[in-house]
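Technical appendix A lists one of the benchmark inputs used to test multi-chain prediction within the project. The record comprises two sequence entries:
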Amino acid sequence: MMQNNERQALVFRDGIVFPNPIGQALGTYIEKNEKGYLLLPGPPRELEQMFRQSVTPFLSDKYEDQQVILSKTLRFFGIGESTLTTLLDEMIRNQTNPTIAPYAGKYEVTLRITANAATEAVCEKLVDETKAEILAIVGEHHYGDGDESSLAEVVGKKLLESKRSISAAESLTGGLFQSELVKVPGISEVFAGGIVSYQAEAKQRVLGVPEHVIETYGMVSPECAVAMAECARELFDTDLAISFTGVAGPDQMENKPAGTVWIALSKKNGPTAVQGFRFSRDRLGNREQTVMQGFDMIRRQLMDSDLER
Amino acid sequence: MMQNNERQALVFRDGIVFPNPIGQALGTYIEKNEKGYLLLPGPPRELEQMFRQSVTPFLSDKYEDQQVILSKTLRFFGIGESTLTTLLDEMIRNQTNPTIAPYAGKYEVTLRITANAATEAVCEKLVDETKAEILAIVGEHHYGDGDESSLAEVVGKKLLESKRSISAAESLTGGLFQSELVKVPGISEVFAGGIVSYQAEAKQRVLGVPEHVIETYGMVSPECAVAMAECARELFDTDLAISFTGVAGPDQMENKPAGTVWIALSKKNGPTAVQGFRFSRDRLGNREQTVMQGFDMIRRQLMDSDLER
């Protein structure tokens, strides 16, 4: 045995020792002057496994008469942090337990609800009650819970559940919407495909947007967005089709400033919806925000019951 | 004046004071027992500006008779870290000044050359000499320098410089190649657009891949990749067209394991090239690596002189 290995096996005489099933160095807990010290191995993989397997149960036992803390994150899109906190002003001002902490992400806002009680069950009840109160006020903008769920994932799963097929026609976003959608495993069941019609000629020849639409209204127009979505839906024969056209920047186009965006959503047996935006980020930011808005348009459409199939 | 503001104006009697044009707290340099101490404001914006405007010139003056250090990062694709370091083994073993440090990134390898000399000019000469020696051995895989340049950006700029138009047909990558390409400002001059043919039907009806190709060879085949690239090039009438087909995972498809990928590059007036890969990452990782390989195929094609236009 190497001298170095021998040293790794040393522990404090009065300590509590934690085993290391995947490495050499042991973990120890010692107390001195009413303070507790945890000594854990350095490699993250070993540290994490030891913490999960030994340290967490040890601490739970040791502090079992203490309070439990539980958090849940609610995710919102299509509402700013200031509007959200204004609408929830009374709740936030009067918060004691649970507490409500707003956080402004890159394109969304999250609220973390944290409860503190004797047991996990009581915490959960407190969190769920607060969640219900919040959703009664701003539920329209709530798309999911947790730290992991993305808007694309939530929409992809809703499409799969409701068995609605979809296609896309992308101009300024250059395929970003579709590449986000295909992150959802199994999406090929409902996602047929799409066209990236970056140049005007591609919009006409490949996608089939009528020449007069582009000549009369330009490529950055609600009329062009509507035509793009409807052409994609026909080409791919899907229940839904979404289109994106606009100016990513940094330069303007057709005398429209960078950040001007039109998104259209075509439905089988229903009118095509179209929305205009004016974003003020950089080239990539405008594009990412456009894609998020597109996912949100689909989410709201799927929530509505008026989609005839 | 608040007491707190007054406190922020305090400095050491024997210190050298740095002004803070955008905040309250001043910076100070003091010496004690032959050690130098820098005291700087906490807010990153104030710290950074003070460091640039006052501290860097102060330190340069103070240590003007000291050595200069200069680094350059070389970026490689299509070669593993172990192969690269084996090929450069002698150079790396004998390194003194400049030093050569290899680093394995997610999909690429970088080498950092660091020189140490009396002046910046001497450093640059040393770095450039070492760079030339390295490129004489592994130059084929070198695509750019610096910490910022991406393979997509390098390829986009090469397409713009050589005025070669391009289109794409994407299956497993779902639009990721195109959304990376459109990050390059001005790319609309050469990038026409593309098709995301995710389902088999989209490959046939929208892209125009002959039914017998898919029936005989399947979608995950070199034959399908070639047909996809050639169909895209004809549809969009471009100089080049690239196609991606394969199995992103996690499940297999057509009895081909996850990670099986075919990439084809069609050229005006030239044979279509096709390459097969077997990646072993997760769904997103396989897709990202596929896109990088695609960009590298285009880069190598543009370096070759045999592209008739």
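Residues 151-303 of chain A form a domain with the Maf protein fold (CATH 3.90.950.20). Chain A touches chain B at residues 167-168, 170, 172-179, 181-183, 185, 187-188, 191-199, 201-203, 205-206, 235-237, 248, 250, 283-284, 287 (CB under 8 Å). Comparable benchmark entries are summarised in Table A2.
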